[in-house]
Amino acid sequence: MVNCSFFSPRLFQVDDGDRVRLNFSLDLDMTINFGEKSPLNLTEVAWRLINHQASTLVHENIPANTPLVWVTISFSKRYLTNLIPTLNQSEEKTLAELLDKSPQKFIFKEFSLDHNLNLMVTNLLSINLSESFYLSYAKAKTDELVCTALDQILQPPSKYPLAIKFGQRDEAAIKLAHKIILNNLAQVPSTREICTMIGMNRNKFYYGFKHLFKKSLNRYIKDERLTRAHSLITTTELSIIEIATEVGFAHQSSLSSAFKSEFGISPMQLRKSSEIK
Predict the structure, then answer these.
(1) How many CA atoms lie within 13 A of 253 on its CB side?
(2) Which end of the chain is more exposed for a tag (fewer CB within 10 A), N or C?
(3) In terms of Cα–Cα distance, which of 184, 166, 164, 206 is closest to 70?
(4) What is residue 270's three-state secondary structure?
(5) How high is the pLDDT of residue 146?
């Protein structure tokens, strides 16, 4: 379970071995590489099933100052057999294909994180029990999450509606959150703080924000910071390090890396081209 951000870019090497991975993301922005395959950029609120050849090393690149909110469950076929001992023939065949670890096997599937799954993930991330009960509760909730996710694969799409309806009050609250974010790009309040300010639970807030602004919260904040940085570089005499601080990047190098990835040019190169004009 992850609910954090890093001050500097991080590269993680993951060895899933004979296990299959389920990742449930409420907020993320990362690039994942599976051996020689083309890298995948993950930014959407979604859940993913990842299954690849046991010998493949996975590299996960995470930018600096990027909120990460997710639950990842890595499990073996034995765990699933014990968890769900009775499957009909069709269900067993479908899951067997998804969980097959034969050579050259590669499966990456992305699914909508519906309201029920979103709520389960939020509950796992906010467990507030004593040490005596924590592990038992977390295991039960993890089993529930796995069962619900796999059932979503096996059941008709109509059973799991993708959209959530919001009333006028909900939209007004999310628009207030949007205003809070834009007014505090240098140091955006935490999701918990924003939810307290607008009187909305985190589960509904994540869904509502994407519903209104067509981007995950993290993606939206990153895009706004880069857009504002671009404007400040071309219209002010602030130094690059001052601009980085102004728009919410902890280090100049973090801004430079994200900026070049987005615009194909470094902040300094843009500044020089602006001065020539």
Answers:
(1) 5
(2) C
(3) 206
(4) helix
(5) 93
